[in-house]
Amino acid sequence: MKTMTTMLLCLITMLLIASAYSKENTGMRLDMKHRDTLSPNPSPFHRIEDIMGMDQKRHNVISQKIKTTKGGAKMSLGSGFDFGAAQYFSEIMVGTPAKRFRVVVDTGSELTWVNCRFHGQGPKKLENRHVFRAENSSSFRKVGCMTKTCTDDLSKLFSIAICPTPRTPCAYDYRYVDGSSAQGVFAKETFTLGLTNGSVTTIRGLLIGCSSASEGGAFREADGILGLALSDYSFTSKAINTFGGKFSYCLVDHTSHKNISNYLIFGSTPSSATKSPARRTTRLDINILPPYYAVNIVGISIGEEMLNIPPQVWDVNIGGGTILDSGSSLTFLAEAAYKAVITGLQRHLVGVKRIKPEGLPIEYCYYTSKFDDRKLPQLSFHFMGGTRFEPYRRSYLIHAAPGIRCLGFVMAKAQATNVIGNIMQQNHLWEFDIAASTMSFSPSTCL
After folding, report:
1. Which residues pair with 249 in a beta bridge?
2. What is the value of pTM for the model shown?
């Protein structure tokens, strides 16, 4: 039993918790790995508490915050199952000469930053991590504290209103939804990016944070953050302006090992994916819950039964609404929606022995070693206009340990933002077309 519980914690932790031959036909390629691949044998109990805590805090803050050319930039992504973290990593090349850094890919964060030392401030060395020496880069340009960029444009990115001299850099104290934080100074830098044809290109003048200090488990074994939320200063904004007005990603099954990879692509999605007969398209509401990626869900069904969920759950004007978030692992539903979904699924799990592992903040887990998935009906999310998203059964009855599976939902407040987490999104290709304000998706092995 102890072994099963330990495995359960480990797995849920991972569950829970970015000059070519032709500009028109090339893209950049960044190697990307899940954060868990970098953590040496963490305690499974520590991981589950860490990831569930970060997911819950992330959802709470999301709810509060809510009151081109062709070609593509291709970055490989890998699941963190083997290492017990819920986030994904990429490698970026920063500065001149370019230095390599391993960063967390975060669709809910607007700021890209790396561990950094500048004018004697910041760490000289970090165990298993790299530190950017800003003064050794000829392309590093600090943002002055008296500039409009600092006082106005970066105020939403937690710039600090301290400016003793005109030469003082613009400082920040960036706070994350899980309680983590990073402190440092803003700068403009050059990023060197590998292209899919084997050559490289550079993107100049990208806003970056030179972080002299950081706190929080989200940064364990990472050199920084690649901010992919949609805002004027995020990596996404610069990338879609360079490679085209869309991006896509495909998440492999969350239990995949580190040798299995998927992709984050800026620019055109491969034609084989766009021509899939199973491809569905719905509206992407990019302006109603910025900087998040909001969609207009109007209901949830189980089998052929549409659940009785009050429409105000989906109404962003009164505190509801729905976003897709690759930074949250589980799916958060407002209280009325959560209860309807759990009740509907439980009817089909009658006779399956329920388990409540000690210390786990997830309610509905079952011994399912002999359970046939086909007995569980299809759960579907219904979008305005008639489009449906039908996740795989293993995406809502999630593997937690050998023979144990859990319903992958978390109950939010009565009126709260609903969040479709990354486990629910797994084994689908998701394309966010910012220019057209549409989101398309289709089943995929992501291999």
Report:
1. 264, 430
2. 0.80
